[in-house]
Amino acid sequence: MDEELKKAELKRLRGEIESAAVRLGMPRGKKFVPETAPAVLLTDALFYEASLLGASDIHLTPEEDGVRVRYRIDGDLYDRVTFSKTGLLSVVTRMKAISGMDIAEHHLPQNGRFSLDLYGKDYDLRISALPSAYGENIVIRLLSRELPFTFRELAFSPDEEAAVLRMLSKPGLVLLTGPTGCGKSTTLACFLKELVSEHRNIVTVEDPVEYLIEGTEQVSLPADGRLTLGMALKDVLRQDPDIVMIGEIRDAETAREAVRMAIAGRLVLSTLHTADAVHAVPRLRDLGVENGFLADALTGVIAQRLVKRICPKCRTQYTAEDAALPDVRQLFRGNGCEECQGRGVKGRIAVHEVMEVTPRLRSAIRAGKETDELYSIAREEGLRTMGENALELLKGGVIDLNAFRSVTGIPERK
Ligand SMILES: [Zn+2]
């Protein structure tokens, strides 16, 4: 959408949300006959506005004297509007009705989902309702079905990109690691899109499917838990896949199946919760994978974090005062402008750490070496840490000091 149009649309939505919020607080008098129920208007306008602002979640939090609406944008929550608690019930009812929840149930947590077209883009909306002291808390996650970027836009250095392409070109287990919300599944989806070919059968097993990727078979685990990931993987094998993407390795059964498929000559892609690349090895050992099998299967691990980019419109250079980074003095930050809604940051970039399992590293895994030793070997074999990659982005003015600190683990300073 064109910037001017977007601005006008945001202004219109803002007005709509505010007037709907006011009407929601009105007592139902005889003379007041709204053409469209304000709860419907408010919910719809929130979805549209959230999508325009690039929000990933909408939070409706009932408090003592009102309902707070916040958007999560680039990882942080921002206040948007507050409406009267009088309107809460009708808004919650509307949310429950469109997402298939029981509208009469107010005391138990519920989940629902539905699909929506917002400005020509397909979204999957997942709604969670949780009873709290002041009413039902609602959180809506907006998932775009379209990939936000391509493989080339993943910001790997040329060496890292070459290593990733090597991992993806042969059988083996390739893992993406990092905390929840670090964009692991987006990166995996970019890999899969790159791998799609009429000569390969690509199957994904997810809980549930996030991105729709043409040219692949995607299996969503049913929400009722009847089918476990491990069980589904056995059926996937009967589908004669060349490439299998597993949403996440969470248990021993899934870990075992993933390793077995990789050893049997398939490319297996999945995600794990570990802080850095090398810790994928002890994590898989904890899940019961033996060193020999692990060494045979694992071809690479990519750790990832998402950090905020400095807004290009209001970026300025300044001289750092503190001595946190003695060798870097000239830094950049965003001062806040209309473009970034005064935040000084806009959008995010993935910072990576690519660990390719080289022959030396493979022998060390097979020999059961400890994590520290594996890390030293990986470093000697050319591993560039997330901290080092983040430092490059800091020096280049892509990210600010707070974003850099969020990667290196040094607490943020405001
Ligand atoms: Zn700005």
A few lines on this structure:
The protein is 34% helix and 28% strand. The chain has helices spanning 3-24, 38-52, 88-98, 158-168, 184-195, 229-237, 252-263, 280-286, 291-297, 359-366, 371-380, 386-395, 401-408, and strands at 55-63, 66-73, 76-83, 110-118, 121-132, 135-144, 172-177, 202-206, 217-220, 243-246, 267-272, 298-310, 315-319, 330-334, 345-356.
Helix/strand order: HHEEEHEEEHEHEEHEHEHHEEEEHHHH
How would you sum up the global shape?
globular
SS content category = alpha/beta
By CATH, the superfamily of the largest domain comes out as P-loop containing nucleotide triphosphate hydrolases
CATH architecture grouping of the largest domain: 3-Layer(aba) Sandwich
Question: Residue ranges: pLDDT <50 for 5 or more in a row?
Answer: 29-33
**CATH C-level of the largest domain:** Alpha Beta
Proportion in β-strands: 25-35%
Ligand catalogue: zinc ion
N/C terminus separation: 33 Å
Average pLDDT score: 90
Report on the architecture of this protein.
This protein is an alpha/beta fold and 414 residues long. It folds into 2 domains: 3-144, Beta-Lactamase (2-Layer Sandwich), CATH 3.30.450; 151-408, Rossmann fold (3-Layer(aba) Sandwich), CATH 3.40.50. The protein is 34% helix and 28% strand. The chain has 13 helices and 15 strands. The chain has helices at residues 3-24, 38-52, 88-98, 158-168, 184-195, 229-237, 252-263, 280-286, 291-297, 359-366, 371-380, 386-395, 401-408; strands at residues 55-63, 66-73, 76-83, 110-118, 121-132, 135-144, 172-177, 202-206, 217-220, 243-246, 267-272, 298-310, 315-319, 330-334, 345-356. A 7-stranded mixed sheet has the order 9-8-10-11-7-12-15, with helices on both faces. Helix 1 (3-24) runs antiparallel to helix 2 (38-52). It is globular and about 70 Å long. It starts with a helix and ends in a 6-residue tail after the last helix. The site of zinc ion has 9 residues, from loops.
